[in-house]
Design goal:
It contains eleven helices and three strands; from the N terminus they run αααααααααααβββ. With 326 residues, the chain is mainly α. It has a three-stranded antiparallel sheet. Strand 1 and strand 2 form a beta hairpin. Helix 6 runs antiparallel to helix 7 and helix 10 runs antiparallel to helix 11. The longest helix is centred in the C-terminal third of the chain and has 44 residues. The chain starts with a helix and ends in an 11-residue tail after the last strand.
Length: 326
């Protein structure tokens, strides 16, 4: 019972991160299950069945708050489900270790690009122009769905990172669209695990605990992504990508624990500093915008006093009755 309660809290924390940053539910939950001694395939299966409920709740919440680009969801979801089904059915016989350094290096590079994109803005606000091409979304869905099943997580890191780095979709809609499409991906992966493992190979109690914790906080996570500025959200997501994949690569390389901990602490400190800088930059932009709007309103405001139209520059002059004009 204690284990299920702990898993419920883990599901809540993982969903809070995933729903606001577009990644980490599967990675967080699967990591804990594997650490508890659950086989990787069974752990990934439990997480995917839990995600059917959490992603549905998250998608509804994001839709209500206007965080979803439904074109992206339509194009991305089906290839993602196909990839997830394929990855799930071969997980027991296909080790994912060989793909770890390649995927980790790609995601790390994209995470650094995302950080650069949002931290190099200076005093400008980020702009999102154009439209993500279908030729980009379809293979993205296939790769993300496959990695999601093979590694117990990957849809968010691959999808969110790639869409953020494209510079064509604002972060809140990236997160909302990835979370919403993940419902279809979770269904595809779950069906694949049923084929590969059978119902007996899935820990339904663990899946239920993760599901309940995630569903409870899904609306809060969607609210956070609705109200966080793009610069802050992009910096937070980019930092999470860098820290997570740096850890993955260090562990893959069998780096000594005495070196891993200081490196991750330094990266986390730099990440926090970046978020603080982003918040301050947003405040400066907001304050300067308020000053500009105030000056504009002052120049344009007009009030009628005793029948005379008055502006900030003084009484207005009627050109038709102006003696100087005559």
């Amino acid at each position: 019972m204690r284990t299920l309660i702990v898993l419920g809290f883990v599901g809540a924390i993982a969903q809070l991160i995933d729903g606001s940053l577009g990644m980490a539910y599967g990675v967080t939950s699967t990591t804990l299950l594997v650490a508890a001694g659950i086989a990787p395939a069974a752990a990934s299966a439990s997480v995917h069945f839990a995600e059917i409920g959490t992603t549905l709740a998250s998608g509804i919440s994001h839709h209500k708050l206007g965080n979803v680009d439904w074109r992206i969801v339509r194009v991305l979801a089906v290839p993602g489900a196909i990839g997830a089904f394929a990855g799930a059915t071969v997980l027991s016989s296909l080790p994912a270790d060989a793909a770890t350094p390649v995927v980790g290096a790609i995601l790390l590079a994209l995470g650094l690009y995302v950080l650069y994109r949002f931290l190099a803005l200076g005093g400008r606000r980020p702009e999102f122009r154009g439209r993500v091409r279908t030729g980009f979304l379809v293979p993205l869905g296939l790769v993300g769905g496959t990695l999601d099943s093979l590694g117990g997580g990957g849809w968010g890191p691959v999808g969110t990172t790639s869409l953020l780095s494209s510079g064509r979709v604002e972060p809140r809609k990236v997160v909302g669209s990835i979370d919403t499409s993940e419902f279809v991906v979770a269904v595809g992966g779950s069906l694949g695990f049923l084929v590969g493992l059978g119902a007996a190979g899935i820990n339904w109690g663990y899946a239920a605990a993760l599901l309940i914790g995630g569903v409870l906080v899904a609306p809060l996570a969607a609210w956070l992504v609705k109200h966080l500025p793009a610069r802050v959200l992009g910096t937070a997501a980019g930092g999470l990508i860098v820290v997570t994949n740096s850890r993955t690569l260090l562990l893959w390389a069998d780096a000594p624990a005495s070196a891993v901990a200081p490196i991750l602490v330094a990266l986390a400190a730099a990440w926090i500093a970046g978020i603080v800088w982003a918040v301050r930059a947003e405040r400066r932009v907001r304050d300067s915008g308020a000053v500009e709007r105030g000056a504009w309103d002052l120049d344009d405001a007009a009030a009628t006093v005793d029948g005379t139209t008055t502006t900030a520059a003084g009484p207005a002059v009627d050109e038709e009755t102006d003696p100087a004009r005559a």
